[in-house]
Amino acid sequence: MKIGFLVKQPEEPWFQLEWKFADQAARELGFEVMKIGTPDGEKVLTAIDNLAASGAQGFVICTPDVLLGPAIVAKARANNLKVLAVDDRFVGPDGKDMEQIHYLGISARKIGNAVGETLMNQIKERGWNMAEVGFMVMTFDELPTIQDRTEGAIEKAVEMGFPEGQVYRAPLQQRIEVPTALDAANTLLTRHGNVKKWIIAGGNDSSVLGAVRALEGRGFNAETAIGVGINGTDCIPELEKANPTPFYGSFLLSAREHGYLTAKMMYE
User: Fold this and answer.
1) Which one is predicted more confidently, 106 or 127?
2) Does residue 107 contact residue 230 with C-beta atoms inside 8 Å?
3) Which among 33, 42, 52, 253 is most buried, taking Cβ atoms within 10 Å?
4) Are 98 and 76 a contacting pair, CB within 8 Å?
């Protein structure tokens, strides 16, 4: 048996780990995984055709755009392939989740809440004057999973007493990665040059790391800025540095669950 495993950013450590654990499931259960990077809609649809031509019977996908859901399902059905979504859920033409498509994901808002709580606990532990602190949130509202994480962080921080008027959103353009986050953070910092201390949240490690690089470029350090990421994969070199940076920590998600379990589910 052959199954496909399609991911939107194959160069990212998170997706490489998903592939690694899908391969582990394949070795243990006796099937083949065809791993394909699909960064845009055209490559997704071509990959599905190629899978069918190669004799695959189904595929797992983290789509580059949740709005591609109906097109992916139509193409899968035309090729008689089963489909299972991972990480990001398909969205239908009505703007609602396509609940008929099986999906393995995470409690995104709860994870965001945990980020907000961690940042607030650090502010209190360090005795910072809340009036001097800005909350930089690296947003990417085009992806519901990421939006739930960032809004969850804001929600919890405000609930714990952070002033809502000091929350500043830095929208990312096109991709959630370090360079785009660096640009978005620099734009925001130019507008809010009077803020003395910063806390940072984002949808993943890379978005927070980009913000950290921008802050370091303006003289902030581990004493004046606190960033908390999500994934626990892209940040490992950062946490291994001899001198601490403003990147304080990350919530480690289980790439094994997302890679091994989805491949096993598709096989079954």
Assistant:
1) 127
2) no
3) 33
4) no
What is the spatial order of strands in the sheet that 133-139 belongs to? 167-171, 133-139, 197-202, 225-231, 247-252
Share of the chain above pLDDT 70, in %: 100
In whole angstroms, how far apart are CA 36 and each of 7, 11, 16, 21, 51? 7, 11, 11, 15, 10
CA 115 – CA 208 distance, rounded (Å): 12
The pLDDT of residue 143:
84
**170 forms bridges with which residues in the sheet?**
138
Which letter, b or e, does each residue of 134-166 get, where b requires 16 or more Cβ atoms within 10 Å of its Cβ?
Answer: bbbbbbbeebbbbbbbbbbbbebbbeeebeeeb
- At residue 12, the pLDDT reads 85
Beta-bridged to residue 33, according to DSSP, are 3
Determine phi and psi for 34, rounding to 5 degrees.
Answer: -100, 110
pTM, two decimal places: 0.79
pLDDT recorded at residue 120: 98
Evaluate whether 120 touches 184 at the Cβ level (below 8 Å).
no
CB 76 within 8 Å of CB 59: yes
Phi, psi for 186 (deg, rounded to 5): -60, -40
> Is residue 56 within 8 Å of 3, Cβ to Cβ?
yes
- What is the C-alpha separation between 202 and 169, in angstroms, rounded? 10
Mean pLDDT to the nearest integer, 243-262: 93
Tokens of 117: 């709580």
Beta bridge partners of 202: 138
Torsion 205-211-212-213 (CA) sign = positive
Q: In 3-state terms, what secondary structure has residue 139? A: strand
**Whole-angstrom distance, CA of residue 67 vs CA of residue 36:** 20
Angstrom distance (rounded) from CA 82 to CA 112: 32
